[in-house]
Amino acid sequence: MEAIQREAIQTVLDKWQGQPLYLHLETTNGAYAALRSESPMAVCAYIRNGKIRYERGTIAGTGPYRIGLKMEDGWVYAEGLTDWEMDSQGRLLVAGHDSEGRLAIAFELSETPFPM
Amino acid sequence: MEHVLAVFPHPDDETFGKAGTIALYTKAGIPVTLICGTLGQLGRNMGKPFFATRETLPTIREKELRDACAILGIKDLRLLGLRDKTVEFEDPEALADRIETVLRELSPSVVMTYYPEHGVHPDHDGLSRATVHAVKRLPQAQRPVIYGSAVTKNAVEALGSPDIVNDVSEVLEIKLAAMRAHRSQSEAMMEKIERDLQDPKKKEKVEQTLKMERFWIYRT
Ligand SMILES: [Zn+2]
């Protein structure tokens, strides 16, 4: 992965507008957050292979970045994004890493399902 | 013939806090079989500096696990193919079935797992509960001793002093090599350990933590 290039991600979001996609969206502060007293509790949420279609997809901010996908019936939102890549399988992988390089948020879109 | 069965949900669980004990077994010629539940697909650590992505992490961690097994002398590794963070939501009877099959096949004298409700990570407790459940299906006389790893802050308060404290000094280099093998998960930690070892105020405590491995016997 490399530091986010906003225009490049916007180009991908525009290209996939209106077509069915698979979403991996995740945020975590680590299963040991409370044990290490980093925060009062461990918090994590993820959706893998949510099927979505958006009518407007936008990346915003000056880094860390935000992405919002406006759908017919709702929204997908991600904040704290720092790094990205288009992987060898043509999937858009975006992530936010903290100062220690640990993953704090992942936002991924793919035309085919992510492996289980 | 003695045999040890280790049952853990993530690659690296067999190493952190336990690698020395495993290395002592294999060094003594006692075979160790490891059942690993998931590939730690949702780990937060990605290396330092990070080199894994959410999608490459499972492949990287499986390789790290195989490397660590080779270092520790674990020749029999079995993957359950579960997904990180979902173990507690699987059917506990079905999980216990899979563990029971291995228990009956190997008749281990010792089973290493987390101490139920003291594993901190929900996957640790999910799989240790299933393991205890599987052991309890065996007739009393055939049940292996369960070495539980308790990693909660209140472990000693709740469970008393550990039943077993293994001094693993003689295999410390092996243990450290296994920790390093789990590179994506351990780079940040190893950096800190090596820094603390240079600090006279912290050295002794870090060495003690590395050299002393603690287990609580779970009575069935
Ligand atoms: Zn674990």
Protein model, in words:
The complex is a heterodimer of chains A (116) and B (220). Chain A is mainly beta. Chain A is 9% helix and 51% strand. Chain A has a single domain, classed as Distorted Sandwich (Protein Yojf, Chain: A), CATH 2.70.180. In chain A, a hairpin with a 2-residue loop joins strand 5 and strand 6. Chain A is globular. The two termini of chain A are 22 Å apart. Chain B has one domain: Rossmann fold, CATH 3.40.50. The mean pLDDT of chain B is 97. Classes of the chains: A mainly beta (116), B alpha/beta (220). At the A-B interface, strand 2, strand 8 and strand 9 of A face loops of B. The complex binds zinc ion.
Shape of chain B: globular
Helix and strand string of chain B, N-terminal first? EHEHEHEHEHEHHHE
Task: Report the largest inter-chain contact.
Answer: A-B, 27 and 23 residues
Q: Quick one: CATH superfamily of chain A?
A: Hypothetical protein YojF
**How much strand of chain A?**
over 45%
Radius of gyration of chain A: 14 Å
* CATH fold naming of chain B: Rossmann fold
Overall pLDDT score of chain A:
94
Judged by helices, strands and strand pairing, the structural class of chain A is: mainly beta
CATH architecture of chain A: Distorted Sandwich
CATH level-two architecture of chain B: 3-Layer(aba) Sandwich
The domain count of chain B comes to: 1
Q: State the low-pLDDT regions of chain A, or none.
A: none
Query: Can you identify the CATH superfamily of chain B?
Result: LmbE-like
The kinds of small molecule bound in this structure are: zinc ion
Please count the beta strands of chain A (DSSP E, at least 2 residues each): 9
